[in-house]
Each structure stands twice: as structure tokens, then as C-alpha cells.
Amino acid sequence: MFHPFCPCCPLRPLGCSKDVKDSKDKEDNFHKFPTKRFIMDSGNHLFNKTLFEICQAMGSSLELSEVLTTILDLSLRALEGDAGSILLYESGSDDLKMLASRGLPPKVVKRGHINRKGSVAEWVIQNDKPVIVNKRSDIFPDIKDEVPDASAVKTALCAPLHAKGKIIGVININRYVAENSPFAEEELNLFVILASQAAVCIENARLFEENVNHARMAAVGQTVAGISHCVKNILGGLFGGLGNLELACEIKDWTSVSRALALSRSSASRISLLVMDMLDYTKEKKIPIRQWMYPAKTIQEVFDICIFKAQTKRAVLETDIAMECTQIFAEPNQLFRCLLNLVENALDALPREGTVRVICKPLPTDEAQEIFGEDVADYGKICRLSVEDNGSGIAPEHLDRIFEPLFSTKESKGTGLGLAVTKKIVLEHGGRMTVESTLGKGTAFHMILPEINPSLGPQEVVNPE
Hints:
Layout: H1 23-26, H2 45-60, H3 64-79, E1 83-89, E2 96-102, H4 106-111, E3 113-114, H5 120-127, E4 131-133, E5 155-163, E6 166-175, H6 185-216, H7 224-251, H8 254-282, E7 291-293, H9 295-313, E8 315-321, E9 328-330, H10 332-349, E10 354-362, H11 365-372, E11 382-389, H12 396-399, H13 418-428, E12 432-438, E13 442-450
Parallel strand pairs: 8-10
Antiparallel strand pairs: 1-2, 1-6, 2-3, 4-5, 5-6, 7-9, 10-11, 11-13, 12-13
């Protein structure tokens, strides 16, 4: 019996599943990055599917933790691993931080860091090549193998992650079950290709995260770098939808055609919304060209764009429009963007399943006077257009800041412009923006829209089309 060495646990005896006959055979366990001899057969459906899904992950998420978890899950599935981890260098440190893990002992996960000295990760980093480890002496010949316990790793893969010519960390896959065969060379080749794609995903997510964080501490002009990464990721979803559309048309899979169109439409609308938000935020206050419009029509247009995200989250989209508010006085395009921002935010707030409801009802006079701080007799009809969700809610300490430009509670998933621009548009309509939220129960954003606001001067009434 032998014990391999867990990449996440320095100097820890693990397990083994096969002998290495002599020191000459040991060299066969060290492998360099693949050249032409490692090119995979295109008939390997599972591998091709996994590689495609990792590429999809590049455009489907802006958050590093989600990208890492997706990559690890897909790699474990493709290589039939029982456990694994992704370890990345911390800024300004030689320590490796475990940013994603599956199936590892709780005490290892809780520690979150590993010291490089004496670890498989250290060997892989120093030698800059991937390796199959079936017992510890494979890479540390001077250390005696010991009889392992039943939970020990039987065989392991470890590969470096490269970005911009530097090693940024390692990815590990383990098998625990004794009946499982040791990892073979062809599996290592697959693993290396997956690792190279994973490194691209990780670096892109890191770059976006870093740029957005820097942008939030700078002026609006400095946000361009971060927002460009956002556009790039959205474009990934757009091109992915178009690619799926072409494939679905070729095989005449009309259900997939519909889904691909929904993804492409959603991605295109998100780009348009982001661009308009940036333009509106930098403009001086203006008086909107308002007209009588049907909110039900605008709400449905928003739902059509958000349906793909809603289906992904298993969310229900609902409307409730009072008879008194079947028409409201507003600029249709601007109100559309306000609703799209709020509905997108509401869907983001749902962890899994839930309801997003858009409500349009008249605002009682006493509430209106409290909100506007004056007599509202000359305001005409006042409607309250609300977007409610039963998601995670907003922490009390954030409520006073959510309308600040560049402030976001969504980490790298948000630019911090959506709510600021929405409030700006509502104020330009002579209205008010309010919010109610309970942590763990949900949030409601209210746009208070008066038919007339004396501060805006005379308004031309235009009938809706």
C-alpha cells in the first residue's frame, strides 16, 4: 500500500491505488503540456461538451466565485473525480488560497489556505507542468510511503493555471474510491486542456472584478474599463445565443431556436440598457417629453426581455394594474428603461425561485402629501409604479446608499449605475423614488409619478398610440 499526497494538504498521508515499479517508471508520471500528440478525438462527446460549457461560463457570469465553481464542477464530471479544488495566489503573497472546492474534508476547506512548501501544488508550480500522483514518493522520492486510512486519496491530478505567461494557481482533481482506476495519461491530457480554458475564464473574471472595484473609487470617466468588461461578457452571451440559434436551425430544433432567440434578445437589450444608462448619467437634468401611455404594454416588453433570466431562476413574473392607472403620463422609452433596471435587479435578488411583481395603482392623497412634502391638489392623478420581489432583501446599512452612483451590493455583477439613473429619470418626471426592504423577505421599489408637477412648468398632453 502507498499514500499519495493531497494537493491541498501538505505532508498529509493519503492513499494509493497502484505501484510504481521502479524509479524509471516514476518519470512516466510527469507530463508536459500537450502538443500535437495530445489533440483529442472530436468524437469525445463528454469532453467537447465540458469544454463548450466552460466557454459558456465566460459569458454567463461576471462573478469570480461562480466561474470557479462552474469550472470545478464541469472538470469533476468530465474526469469522474470525487473531489477537487482550485487554488490561486493571493495578491502580494506566496500562499495559495482555496477559492473553490468540492468533496474535500471540512477542516481543509475551513482553513482556506495552504502553504506551498512540501505540497504537490508546490512541485507543479516549481516544475511548471501537470502531474498524475498515485503515491507520494512519485514526486518526493526521499519520503517513505505509509499505509493510508480508508478515506485517503487513491489517485490525483494537478495542473498549473497560466495567465499572461505566469502561473496564477493550480487545479486539482482527486479520486477516493479504491475501485476507481488510477488517472491515465489521456485523462491528464484532457485535464490540461480544460485547465488552459479555465485559466482564461479565471483571468477574465479577475480582470473584470478588479477594474470594476477600481472604477467605483474613481470618477465616472474611470468606469469605462470596468463597463467594457461587462459589455464583453454580455457579448459572450449574445454570440453564444446566435451560435445556438444556427445549430438549432440546422437540426430543426424549434424549441432550442426559441430559447436561443430569447438569450440573444436579452443580451442585446442589456447592452443597450447599459449604454443608455452611461449616457443618461453624464447628461444634465432635462425635462422629458411625456405623453399618455399604457404601462401594461411597457411592462410586457420588459418581461419579454427578462423571460430568459426568469426561467433560469425559475421565477414568476406578475402584474397588477388598477383601472385608474391603465394610462399614465410619462416618457415611454425612459419608463421602459427604469422598469427594466428594476426588474433585472429583482431577478438578481432571487436566490432560486420566487416572484417578481410589477404593480401600478393610484397613490392616496395623504401618502402623496407626505412624500412630496406639500399640498398635491395641483398634481393631477398620481400613480405609484412598483417593482416587488420576495428575494434576499437589502441590508439596512445599505439602504441609504443604494441610489448613489457606482455603489452596488452585487459585487462584480453590478456597475452601480442602474438605480442612480432610474432615480434621476423619475425626478426629471417630477416624481419621487422610494424603497422598502426587509432582509431575507424581499424589496419593493416605488416610482411615484404625478400627472402634473408645477415645478416642471406647462406640459403638452399627447394621446398614446
